[in-house]
């Protein structure tokens, strides 16, 4: 875990029912995340014991294995890393044709840590082969130059805003200056700094250099899109975040918002309605509502898809069209981002209606590729669903299987050759 004074002083309500305070649960790991009381007990005993730090680490790692935390969901390690000249491009993921992700090695932590984070493996030192990162000398620039259908370049982590403006500039400025990168139209930065440390854009010594870097993106004739992770409306209430948003917008950047729907933290329609309306008032654009991923302490945090649909509907009903830019609830699953569109009945069979928002093969998003799963009120993820109408497999399954079993280094990749 990790938490800072800004979060402790502003976001947690210390005066009432702390154990049920959403923000307390967002940053302080809860005993039930360990699934069984005996796991909690074994850790308490271990902490009290005289076992060396190294010995404790071994025990903790064994417990992690037992909990089956699925560190790299949706094939992110095996299926998303592109190959160039027969080698993997370090620190890059390229799953959807128009958007390339980059994980700078210096940005692999956050200002505080969310208990539900699916990137937790990035922050622990165990098994460095599980870490995923790029460094400034790597091949990502050549990869961008030779893949002209990349339109969005998304810096992610961890949180890229933990890097200095100088370090981020070392990644970004070469792209902005290179005429062979003119196909990149949007630079995105995925960050929770507006919620966890808005001083990054106000009083920090490095605030001005960072805002200057944002201006350089605008000057290069591109748009900068801050993909801001906001989990709860309290994050929007401080004078610091209001000022940070104003400063960012003055650079020409836009701010889009996204978050997962998490039990005990934001699983109510009122919370999302308040969040989307406040964001819209502040000039932020609601973008994605995600379903909790199948990783980490998922049993503790998961919300059934049917409930997610209800929350989404009730919340969006309280919003004007200007806030209905939001898409979701969406599962970031192996084959793609799958939106749960709704519930319907055909010839007496109750079904979930599903649609790809993004897919490994762009054709899976086609208008005739809506697909249907048997309705199941307890289902929380794609794996829990079965095709409706007696179908044996999902329409995309054979092709996805074929992608995964390729041994020529193009596993999971489609149509990305030039
Ligand atoms: C969500 C996601 C993206 C971005 O998708 P957009 O729909 O362009 O916002 C890109 N790559 C991966 C692997 C993702 O999960
Ligand atoms: S801010 Fe994002 S990457 Fe960082 S801990 Fe939270 S969910 Fe994980």
From TrEMBL:
Its cofactor is pyridoxal 5'-phosphate. SUPFAM superfamilies: Radical SAM enzymes (SSF102114). It comes from the Eukaryota. GO terms for molecular function: 4 iron, 4 sulfur cluster binding; catalytic activity; metal ion binding. InterPro entries: Aldolase_TIM, Lys_aminomutase/Glu_NH3_mut, rSAM, rSAM_sf. Keywords: 4Fe-4S, Iron, Iron-sulfur, Metal-binding, Pyridoxal phosphate, S-adenosyl-L-methionine. PANTHER family: L-LYSINE 2,3-AMINOMUTASE AQ_1632-RELATED, LYSINE 2,3-AMINOMUTASE-RELATED. This is Lysine 2,3-aminomutase. It comes from Amylocarpus encephaloides.
């Amino acid at each position: 875990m990790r938490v800072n004074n800004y979060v402790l002083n502003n976001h947690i309500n210390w005066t009432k029912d702390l154990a049920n305070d959403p923000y307390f649960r967002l940053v302080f790991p809860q005993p039930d995340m360990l699934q069984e009381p005996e796991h909690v007990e074994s850790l308490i005993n271990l902490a009290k014991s005289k076992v060396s730090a190294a010995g404790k680490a071994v025990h903790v790692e064994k417990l992690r294995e037992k909990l089956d935390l699925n560190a790299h969901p949706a094939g992110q390690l095996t299926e998303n890393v592109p190959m160039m000249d027969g080698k993997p491009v370090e620190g890059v993921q390229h799953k959807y044709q128009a958007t390339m992700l980059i994980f700078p090695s210096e940005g692999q932590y956050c200002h505080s840590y969310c208990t539900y984070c699916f990137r937790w493996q990035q922050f622990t030192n165990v098994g460095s082969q599980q870490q995923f990162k790029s460094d400034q000398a790597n091949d990502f620039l050549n990869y961008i130059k030779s893949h002209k259908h990349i339109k969005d370049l998304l810096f992610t982590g961890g949180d890229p805003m933990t890097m200095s403006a100088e370090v981020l500039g070392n990644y970004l400025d070469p792209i902005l200056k290179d005429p062979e990168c003119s196909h990149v139209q949007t630079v995105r930065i995925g960050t929770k700094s507006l919620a966890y440390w808005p001083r990054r854009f106000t009083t920090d010594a490095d605030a001005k250099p960072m805002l200057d870097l944002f201006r350089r993106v605008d000057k290069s004739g591109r748009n900068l899109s801050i993909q801001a992770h906001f989990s709860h409306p309290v994050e929007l209430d401080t004078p610091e975040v209001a000022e940070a948003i104003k400063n960012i917008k003055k650079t020409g950047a836009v701010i889009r918002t996204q978050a997962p729907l998490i039990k005990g933290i934001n699983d109510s329609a009122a919370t999302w309605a308040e969040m989307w309306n406040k964001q819209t008032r502040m000039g932020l654009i609601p973008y994605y509502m995600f379903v909790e991923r199948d990783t980490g302490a998922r049993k503790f945090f998961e919300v059934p898809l049917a409930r997610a649909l209800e929350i989404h509907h009730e919340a969006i009903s309280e919003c004007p069209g200007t806030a209905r830019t939001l898409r979701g609830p969406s599962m970031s699953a192996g084959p793609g981002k799958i939106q749960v569109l709704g519930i319907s009945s055909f010839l007496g069979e109750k079904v979930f209606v599903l649609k790809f928002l993004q897919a490994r093969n762009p054709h899976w998003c086609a208008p005739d590729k809506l697909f249907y799963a048997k309705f199941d009120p307890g289902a929380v993820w794609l794996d829990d669903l079965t095709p409706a109408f007696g179908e044996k497999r999902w329409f995309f399954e054979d092709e996805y299987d074929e992608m995964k079993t390729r041994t020529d280094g193009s596993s999971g990749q489609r149509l990305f050759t030039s």
